Amino acid sequence: MYKGIQKLLLILILITSFCSQAYALNLDQVIETLPDSQDYVSVHSASTDIHKMINAFDLNNPDIAIDWNNFYKIYVDDNDIFSYGSQSKADIMNTLDYIWCYMDTIDNRNFRVTISKATMPDRNLVSQGVISDTDYQALVNRAGSWVAPEAEMDTTQTISNIESALSEAGISETDDIILVGGTSKMRSLFAITFSDNQADKIIPLARNDIPVNTDAAELASNVSSNELEFGEVYDFSEVAQILNETEISPTETGGVGTSSAITESNAFVIVGLFSILILSCGILIYLRRKQL
């Protein structure tokens, strides 16, 4: 009798394990990864930057090998995709730019590195005395190339967490889906699903600290608080209507792109290259002088 119960429990465990594996979601099956992209060769130019970012955390593994399979495309832009009135996938995709996000683990610590394209510097930075001609030329030479301007250690934005959230939201590998790191009104990481090439659902994948207008929230069937919940599935058109009814001041929008998701981590660092830091500081100084 006892042995029979043991066998039954073993069978149930095996069945449960099999079902869990069968319904497990692989992120690289639902969104574009670097090896599948035309950016594969050009993004390799950021490898030195990536190592500098990782080494900035003073880890015991400075020569870690970069796993190029763990780079995922994340769309990000300051344009308001919710106000266009169109839910067409083509219209949304034409609106958004993108970055590459590298997520991996070192010594059991999760980290994330953002890889984006360096922009062309403003020549006025030289005439204003913010940077030298030499520094300006160095920035010009790097414009358009992939660089790693920021990194995050002990991040909650991991491959497994994203996979789990999407799986629990009912997403399968047959779904048409993109990841969005931020827009002008929703800057935390979220997923958009498409049905018949039309935006269908939104799934927040990080804490959304954008206040939702209470009256506007009543327009949606499952918005019961003043924020969109992590891992919850929302109708795209309802969220678009809510955000269009909600006034968001500059102080409420958080950082640019995926930066707002960083508020949940234990450690965050912006190291970057010397030229990138000069450019960032220079632009701020230039704009401040221009306002005076």
Fold blueprint:
Layout: H1 2-22, H2 40-43, H3 47-55, E1 71-76, H4 89-95, E2 97-106, E3 109-117, H5 124-127, H6 133-142, E4 146-153, H7 159-168, E5 176-182, E6 190-195, E7 198-204, H8 214-217, E8 234-235, H9 236-245, E9 267-269, H10 274-291
Parallel strand pairs: 1-5
Antiparallel strand pairs: 1-2, 2-3, 3-4, 4-9, 5-6, 6-7, 7-8
Describe the structure.
This protein is of the alpha+beta class and 292 residues long. 33% of the residues lie in helices and 20% in strands. A 9-stranded mixed beta sheet has the order 8-7-6-5-1-2-3-4-9. A hairpin with a 2-residue loop joins strand 6 and strand 7 (198-204). The radius of gyration is 22 Å and the shape is globular. The chain starts with a helix and ends with a helix. Residues 7-23 and 250-292 have low confidence and may be disordered.
Features:
292 residues; alpha+beta; 9-stranded mixed beta sheet; 10 helices; 9 strands; globular; disordered C terminus
On the 0 to 100 scale, the average pLDDT is 74
Separation, N- and C-terminal Cα atoms: 87 Å
Number of helices: 10
Q: In the residues, how many domains can be counted?
A: 1
Unreliable stretches, pLDDT < 50, 5 or more residues? 7-23, 250-292
**Percent of residues in helical segments?**
25-40%
Global structural class: alpha+beta
Number of strands: 9
> Order of strands across the biggest sheet?
8-7-6-5-1-2-3-4-9
Radius of gyration: 22 Å
Q: Write down the overall geometry.
A: globular
Topology as a string of helices (H) and strands (E): HHHEHEEHHEHEEEHEHEH
Largest sheet: 9 strands, mixed
Strand content: 15-25%
